[in-house]
Amino acid sequence: MVSLPDWCPAYNPQKKDAETGEEVFCICKKPDSGELMVGCDGCDDWFHFSCLKMPTKYNELVFSFYCPYCQAGVTGPGATDGNLPKTLWRRKCRVSDCFKPVAENSKYCSEGHAISYLRGLVDRVEVPGHEATPVLREMLREPDFDHFKGVGQNGLPTPSEQLAPGLFSNDAQLQELESQLQKVRGGAKRRVETQLEQLAQYSKWVHAVNELLFGDGNQEHAESTSGSRSKASRAQKRKKAVKKKAICGYSASLVVPCPAEQFVSEFKELEDEPTELRGVCCKLRCTRHLDWAGTQENGLQFQLESLESSEERLQLLVKIREDQLKLQFYKKLTQIDTTSIKIPLKNES
User: Fold this and answer.
1) CATH number at residue 35
2) DSSP summary character for residue 156
3) Which among 137, 107, 132 has a CA at the least distance from the CA of 120?
4) What is the pTM of this model?
5) Is the pLDDT of residue 181 over 80?
6) How many CA atoms lie within 13 A of 32 on its CB side?
7) According to the model, what pLDDT value does residue 135 have?
8) Which residues form the PHD-type domain (predicted)?
9) Among 14, 120, 226, 316, whose Cα sits 20 to 30 Å from the Cα of 135?
């Protein structure tokens, strides 16, 4: 339980007037006299707006009401489960002297109040030496009302080059950020992506070479160790223990030296199994280059993730700086004396 407001008396369970027998309500325990009341969703009692210190103009904004006793845990569900409810209110129309709830998917109670609110914003804009409406149109540059409804969702609108010449191109801080972003995108990130593509192509080539060299042999070996039904368990264990035969395939350049068929032909022509051919490691059990493909791929992926993180950070910094410049421009436009400055508008030739 929590304490009651100072203006609220202690709870009284009385339901009827002792003398008249009339049903009584509210914290005042008086009969219904026609005064505006609101029903409690917790205890089902009714309460006068005036007794609750609530202005009657909030009448339509009440969504789910709970009296002071239910909110304190004296009555209602909170008295048993300890979960104290709160009164919920509908969102108010943005027009200051309107106390109606907003319409669905809107900040206003009606289209009329939406137009009235926006007209008031336009009337407050002052651009010395120019009419506010055409300047606002140039700032927004929205072709119709449907486009206008989306204004603000993507930040401040970018003023035209005529209205704000060199706003972005003359800012050294923004240019430096964009230069860094371009280096990440077109330089380091692209190099890592190219290396990953090259590694994937080379790994595919090594796999093709091993299939041509040992594919049939591995299959024959698997068949020879299958055995009869009486030896099935021992054969299965043997197959699991034997690792598939394959050359290492490591190459420092990761460049495919020749078609897989040509490489295999050259490999088989040699009397002894070579340890290296065309710069490719041909050892069957190479401990020096153990899991070279996986190690290189993990390293490149880590580099790529770091560069993508840097790219996202720089993109955010560029957007923040652009928004700062736009905000500074719009504030300056309404503060400086522009009586001697001509602002070119779209409808001017």
Assistant:
1) 3.30.40.10
2) S
3) 132
4) 0.46
5) yes
6) 10
7) 61
8) 23-73
9) 316
